[in-house]
Amino acid sequence: xxxxxxxxxxxxxxxxxxxxxxxxxxxxxxxxxxxxxxxxxxxxxxxxxxxxxxxxxxxxxxxxxxxxxxxxxxxxxxxxxxxxxxxxxxxxxxxxxxxxxxxxxxxxxxxxxxxxxxxxxxxxxxxxxxxxxxxxxxxxxxxxxxxxxxxxxxxxxxxxxxxxxxxxxxxxxxxxxxxxxxxxxxxxxxxxxxxxxxxxxxxxxxxxxxxxxxxxxxxxxxxxxxxxxxxxxxxxxxxxxxxxxxxxxxxxxxxxxxxxxxxxxxxxxxxxxxxxxxxxxxxxxxxxxxxxxxxxxxxxxxxxxxxxxxxxxxxxxxxxxxxxxxxxxxxxxxxxxxxxxxxxxxxxxxxxxxxxxxxxxxxxxxxxxxxxxxxxxxxxxxxxxxxxxxxxxxxxxxxxxxxxxxxxxxxxxxxxxxxxxxxxxxxxxxxxxxxxxxxxxxxxxxxxxxxxxxxxxxxxxxxxxxxxxxxxxxxxxxxxxxxxxxxxxxxxxxxxxxxxxxxxxxxxxxxxx
Length: 513
Known about the structure:
Layout: H1 3-29, H2 35-76, H3 80-96, H4 99-106, H5 113-137, H6 141-156, H7 164-173, H8 179-193, H9 206-224, H10 243-279, H11 284-311, H12 313-324, H13 332-343, H14 348-360, H15 367-391, H16 396-409, H17 415-428, H18 431-448, H19 452-456, H20 459-512
């Protein structure tokens, strides 16, 4: 086996193992589950590990270089119209390619799937244009975030209460494993052309703005489309009596995801070929490496999505349903905290973000620090969500103060932490959120007798919000430590100068004597 691929798979194993152990212990101690369901979960975890290894390998070889190259070529173009058109089309293409968006669209039957998907894709395309122009025009990210989130919350007051959680969830769903590596690398490529002092800080922030677009677009859709209701379909728990049944369930679903991912990547490949013919950016050997990387990405995503969709959805739903219906339902709060802390490491796009943060910051912000910050953010999100569902607290009571705190912090932390924080919000809310955490929330709502649409939905929005605060607080601590370090260095320097001056004075006195 390829040594690098083996290392990627072992990294995935260490990331997925904790959440697997937590679920297994919970299924034995707290809520017994059918052996077939547990067997499907274990096989799903195996596929998740294998798929994540292949995907991260493919992202390094194909998605990242391609996104960075396109970002550099866009920056070199002097025609603003070309930049706008390419960015807009690219935003639409990579959004339609996201498998999680299909899942979200199918769960809102009050609006046709194609209408919802095109609305979300248009929102991402429009905001990708804004993100690219922001980097080129050197506009501070904080100002745009304040402006667009004021509009977003203003629109929320005119939308249906049952539609608001879906709108905010769409912002996290669209920045998944296909879009994130591409957009992050594109931002790095654009920033690399600039030579000013703020170029490194502006490497991040594109995912942040692309997460705002879908929220605004879906809120506008809810206002003007005027759906009579916003319903949600509950997950059907499949039964597996034997190991053959388990294998059959995975074998049946794998071709479905193979088709979805193949179509999604084919659209991106087609778009890339057109840009390559026009720009001649990549050499022959680079194209060969990218082609191999796309193969790894295809295999990885198909295996990963099959594993989490077939193996994790039933367990998440049953766990939430049975615990919420029991006499010790409040144990869901600490359990949610524990699950949230460890599950973030199982998000494939998180590894891509953490690696890029370490590279762009020249090792100042390590992957270990990022993992810890995101884990704390995810743990906070699950804790708040479980309390919100059990007490039926309206989501806006949490989102509004949360975003006020997050946006206020942007004016006090180093600019690079603002970009990283708001990118992290989109990155954390990936496939694991939609295939395990959302079913967990839906099961909890169902078991507690809550409204699925109002209380269950919104968990992705929580996952997308809490890292904004945690990572920026991390930035404040980093800034304080850096200032303390600078003051100590300055004091040491002054002490050395003072000492040297005394020596020179004594030496001069002795010479004169």
